[in-house]
Structure prediction request, 84 residues.
Amino acid sequence: MAGMIDEKKYERILHRIAQLGAWLEEEAPYALADQRHLEPHSPEQAYWHLGYHRGLSDMLSFIKERTEDSEGTANPSHAAGADE
Prediction:
């Protein structure tokens, strides 16, 4: 299964992208046109990088979780009784 896409995780990511897109359209439709995150040293640029950093960190967590699951390594967050 190495190299295959985990369909559940893929769908979760697509759903999250759709949620964020809907939020942006509703709450900040100007954001795409303004592009203020491209202004050097602006607060918008700092927040854009903060969000991108968080997104990359989340993706690494997804990849690590998938790798551990496919290698049969115990993942404490998914272990039986972990919630107990």
Summary: Residues 74-84 have pLDDT under 50 and may be disordered. The CA atoms of residues 28 and 34 lie 10 Å apart. The helical segments are 7-27, 31-34, 43-71. The radius of gyration is 17 Å.
